[in-house]
Amino acid sequence: MTLKQLEYALALGSLGSYGRVAKSMGVSQPAVSLQIQALENEMGILLFDRSGKKVEPTLNGLLFLEKAQSLVTESKHLQDFALQLSEEIQGDICLGIIPTLSPFLVPLFLNELNQKYPNIRLTIKEAITEEILRGLKDGRFHGGIISTPIASKSNLKFHPLFYERFYLYVSEKHALFNREEIAIEELDFKDIWMLQEGNCFMDQVTNICATDIKKEGPFIYESNNIDALRRIVEYKGGITFLPELSTLMIPADQEEMIKDISGKIRVREISMVSLKSEVRLNLLEAIGKVIKECIPKQMLSGEHKDIVKTNFMES
Hints:
The chain has helices at about 5-15, 20-25, 30-45, 60-85, 100-115, 130-140, 200-210, 225-235, 245, 280-295, and strands at about 50, 55, 90-95, 120-125, 145-150, 155-170, 180, 190-195, 240-245, 260, 265-275, 305.
């Protein structure tokens, strides 16, 4: 049994086709078939059911692939560990960042990171929290930046980076536009534009409002894009919630639309997350340090702030 055979088997379990596996891994289809067959012969069990249009793992195959994934992930960690024995901050790293944060955070720190650590080759992928946690476990991500706290059953390490305040973004046509500060109790929830359900930011907004907000009427817009909701407010009217970093990129002539929420300061905690066994922690720590240097200073402390829960529970 070889690691390459395990990689073929994992790819086949995911893609369900010898042809797709061959294309994704740059080999011939017969080569994939021969390696899978050799693996099954050596193990003495049938890993895949080939009777349907799509190749599916058998029950034993599913159990085998789960162990195989752990072995392949650990082998990659071992390779990474050898690289990290060097004192120099260098190497490839893949970071998942939630969509409500990535467009506003990445431009703040990327140039500074490139200047300080030119030998870090960083890949950033937008993904929701559930996808990031899954990617940490299967090796697609080395780290993630998500909203916390979350209920997790995995062996994860969380490092808070900053605390992002919630603001209201109010249309110039709205009755509350001339107010500098607005209480949650004053909002008519029919006026509020929200992100799609299942998004941690929406869950936090729902927790702030202490109610389940349901948009009604002739026009319902579902999005995971905060800038899209801003545009809806600007052109159609109403109100939406914004995280603090997104307000830094709003043009000066629209800054009057940004309103404080009265009462205690409500924030979302933003954290770096990784497996405790992740060998590239030095790279993640370097990235986290640069992010903190580039974030507005008032966002670095959670003291005297109300951290809004996310409702997220790892499945």
